[in-house]
Amino acid sequence: MxxxxxxxxxxxxxxxxAAAAKLRSRIAAHKAADRWxxxxxxxxxxxxxxxRQTFDLTALHDVVREWQGRLDTAPAVAAFIASGFEDTDxxxxxxxxxxxx
Length: 101
What we know:
The chain is mainly α and 101 residues long. The chain is built from four helices and no strands. It is extended, with a radius of gyration of 17 Å.
């Protein structure tokens, strides 16, 4: 058995400084904006407060990455739902990855 070097985990790069503002405008233009915009504002506000208390921007970066992922995958999710596939035998995402903060 050969030993493999342990390389440090490379954290994802930080979003651009204006990424949250651009993301908010993308959310506002989405057809689910009436539901998603208040949720984004709530998540952003909580992350902002956490960052103020800890002097760490990780929570803000996580919110931007999470919402970018939601917007990027929304067309695929909509297509899946429109296709009529049955998904009642699925497992809740919260059961797999844990509850949101």
